[in-house]
Design goal:
heterodimer; A: 438 residues; seven-stranded mixed sheet; 24 strands; 17% helix; B: alpha/beta; Rossmann fold; five-stranded mixed sheet; 38% helix
Chain lengths: 438, 332
């Protein structure tokens, strides 16, 4: 198969080159790498090597000719006779076009004329018109057609001698550079072919391919972990910075997502799931103290409350020992007025208590209490662990001449410090109630 | 509004500034009759003459040095560097002289110089004419770096650059010269440096792109929108100065960020922006900040190979899906 010798693009901005001299004669044998010819561009004079071995044939440009880049100026054929028998040698047709010619009407065989690249940034040219009639004979310098680019309108010479046998674009059409728009044949054609460039299955452009969608390539850059549902790692929980911040701001524990069996790492969306979880784990059999809440006990060796009730009734007119008990307990919460629920067997009473004045205690309507007071002094019970309720629970049991006190609170209801203070305070008051008055 | 090519936009900006200020001149290879290989400067030598549109020999260090001197002594040169790859040739004039003169002269000298050059691969121009080297100059204190993403930015940033009293390097994407965009004709178009532009509002992920990568990000956002992922696209417009506040605000809003730039990924612009977001928006991030730059190889001449070295909308979208899926897998 003969090898085309083209005028190479030697510079970025080069449109054509001048053949300075041929170093091989037509028909002469050439080896790959032999200097074929010298070409001068606006920057330099360069020797061009043969790209393959064979015989130089079909030389169509002579020394001194200015030739557009990409134009075929000779061939390297299998035999020296290729020169004389050029039309026959070309009978097999340009190899690249076989596929497209199969379905299109047969194109005449001859020299292809392409839409030239006239500017650096040009992708296509507007065919203004043909300057030669179909079938007419042209010389290499004869203007063949006119092209309009965004910069100018240019008459393009035929570049070679021949008959205009095929016109593959119509005036007014925008044709990509490199696309074949005409064919010049050596012999006068019996009939000429005319069609639009759009309708033709055009041969692919040689150099300037548009950015194609590249094939899927192996990921070359760092791989994002594909949310590998790592089993809840021992130790540090895997969570995004944002998820950690949101959980912290909401006072939520990411450990609960681990307990729920959600795969790590956790993101902001998982914190939304965390918020939606019930505030208390449904049935937490966890034996940890933190999960079950606080359970404190205290003992008062000798209770002073009974004597105090007598004194209060006599001296202050406070005749209700139940109200008095609530009035001593409420202020131990360490806050302002409190609602205390007093439970005595089947009776439940509510009192509001004042942090300063015992006498300000008053019966109240049923509501969510701040403190539950369970008075079991008259029972035989000696110890209990009933679990937390909606509010901290203080239980009173008799123990000899004194009392046994138990404080139970759910996680989060009160801090351990507050619980210790409450129970210590209350035990002290029951031991020496008069202290509450001082 | 009329639409013009990026090439025309640059031409207009230069012509307007040269008419406004007679100290502005252009110097470089093939800038006069040739109007540059990309024909960006066509027509300017006809209007302003060869005194103000100066063709030079192929000697980048020479004409860059002349321009720095001219800038120190009252002119406002616009140096035309035919290919961004040639910036290696002018590094001393640019980085040791132009960038430091104001500082080292105690403010007595200014270098109001613009270096116009280009970047961008996939033009089949091989390894020495396809590089995107803006990160190299962005690294040097004293240089401002503008990266227009359309004709509008190309004009507005060029005019601002010429009026700046300090050296500015503008990188145009050589593949965008023929791309058109609406550019207002009437009013004076000046785009301030250090002001990012939100090109598209989004909720789930922020795509930060520079130069033509802004268009890649916009195309990726379009792909993602079809899948229910809302992507925000931001164009910093200048990487020095960098509108950090705008980038951080978007990072805080979407919690996920991909930075896309056509320079080599390692030690590049993507690394710098990702690091700043990590430092200043860490507790708002729901996923690691991802980078997508050009592959760390010389740009191949083979079209098939060249095309896989640069970020594409498909590859950006793929990254974005991974980021968002970090949450969506768990929710399923």
């Amino acid at each position: 198969m003969p090898l085309d010798v083209i005028l190479p693009a030697l510079g970025m901005a080069q449109e054509s080159g001048v053949i300075v001299a041929w170093h091989k004669h037509p028909g002469e044998a050439v080896a790959e790498g032999d200097i074929l010819f010298e070409v001068e561009t606006d920057k330099a004079t360069v020797e061009v090597e043969a790209q393959g071995a064979g015989f130089l044939t079909g030389v169509s440009a002579k020394a001194g000719d200015e030739v557009p880049v990409g134009q075929v100026i000779a061939r390297i054929s299998a035999s020296a006779e290729g020169a004389a028998a050029e039309p026959e040698a070309e009978a097999e047709g340009p190899p690249a076009d076989e596929g497209t010619q199969a379905e299109a009407p047969a194109l005449p065989e001859g020299r292809e004329v392409i839409m030239p690249t006239l500017g650096m940034a040009q992708d296509s040219g507007l065919l203004v018109g043909w300057l030669v009639a179909p079938g007419a004979h042209v010389g290499p310098e004869d203007p063949l057609f006119e092209v309009e680019t965004d910069k100018s309108t240019v008459e393009v010479p035929a570049g070679a001698e021949g008959y205009l046998a095929a016109l593959l674009a119509e005036p007014g059409e925008e044709v990509p550079t490199g696309q074949v728009i005409a064919i010049l044949t050596a012999e006068a054609p019996a009939e000429t072919l005319q069609r639009s460039a759009a309708g033709a299955a055009a041969p692919a452009r040689k150099e300037e391919a548009e950015r194609p969608t590249p094939p899927a390539v192996p990921e070359l850059l760092e791989e994002t972990p594909k949310a590998a549902p790592a089993p809840a790692a021992e130790g540090r929980i895997l969570a995004s910075p944002k998820a950690r911040r949101l959980a912290l701001e909401a006072g939520l524990d990411l450990n609960r997502l681990v307990a729920e069996g959600l795969p790590q790492p956790y993101h902001a969306r998982d914190v939304e799931r965390l918020k939606a979880l019930p505030t208390e784990p449904a049935a937490a059999p966890a034996p940890e103290a933190a999960a079950t809440g606080l359970h404190l006990t205290a003992e008062v060796a000798e209770e002073g409350f009974t004597a105090f009730t007598d004194w209060a009734a006599r001296e202050a007119g406070l005749t209700d020992p139940k109200a008095l008990l609530a009035a001593l307990a409420g202020p131990c919460l360490g806050r302002g007025a409190a609602l205390v629920r007093l439970e005595q067997f089947n009776r439940t009473l509510y009192f509001t208590t004042d942090p300063v004045s015992l006498g300000a205690v008053a019966p109240a309507e049923e509501a969510a209490p701040d403190l539950i007071l369970r008075d079991l002094r008259d029972s035989a019970i000696t110890g209990l662990r009933l679990g937390p309720e909606a509010a901290p629970v203080l239980s009173l049991l008799s123990k000899g001449a004194g009392l046994s006190l138990t404080l139970e609170a759910a996680p989060g209801q009160m801090s351990p410090q507050a619980a210790l203070r409450l129970l210590t305070d209350f035990a002290g008051r029951l031991s020496q109630p008069l202290r509450a008055l001082l | 509004m009329r639409e013009i090519t990026l090439s025309q936009a640059v031409n207009e900006a230069l012509a307007e500034e040269m008419r406004r200020d007679e100290t502005v001149f252009i110097i470089g290879e093939d800038v006069a009759e040739a109007g540059t290989p990309f024909k960006v400067l066509s027509g300017l030598v006809e209007e302003f003459g060869t005194e103000r549109v100066i063709d030079t020999p192929i000697a980048e260090p020479g004409f860059m040095g002349m321009a720095v001197g001219a800038a120190m002594t009252g002119a406002r040169p616009v140096v035309d560097l035919m290919f961004g790859d040639f910036i290696f040739l002018v590094m001393d004039q640019l980085c040791n002289q132009a960038a430091k003169t104001h500082y080292m002269s105690g403010g007595k000298l200014n270098v109001p110089l613009v270096l116009r050059t280009n970047l961008g691969a996939t033009r089949r121009s091989a390894a020495q004419h396809s590089q995107s080297l803006h990160a190299l100059v962005a690294h040097i204190p004293g240089l401002k770096v503008a990266m227009p993403s359309s004709a509008l930015e190309a004009k507005g940033l060029m005019k601002t650059a010429i009026r700046d009293d300090n050296p500015v390097v503008i990188f145009e994407d050589k593949l965008m010269y023929q791309e058109k965009a609406p550019v207002p004709e009437e009013e004076e178009l000046l785009i301030p440096f250090g002001q990012a532009k939100v090109k598209r509002e989004g909720r789930d992920v922020t795509l930060i792109g520079t130069s033509s990568m802004v268009q890649v990000c916009e195309a990726a956002a379009e792909l993602l929108a079809g899948e229910g992922i809302s992507a925000e696209v931001i164009d910093p417009r200048t990487i020095v100065p960098l509108d950090e506040a705008a980038l951080l605000a978007s990072a805080r809003k979407t919690s996920r960020v991909i930075v896309v730039d056509e320079g080599h990924q390692s030690y590049g612009v993507t690394a710098e922006i990702a690091a700043r977001i990590n430092e200043k928006a860490f507790y708002h991030l729901d996923a690691p900040v991802l980078r997508l730059g050009a592959m760390d190889v010389p740009v191949p001449f083979s079209p098939a190979l060249e095309d896989i070295t640069v970020p594409t909308p498909e590859r950006v979208a793929e990254k974005a899906r991974l980021l968002v899926a970090g949450e969506m897998i768990h929710a399923a």
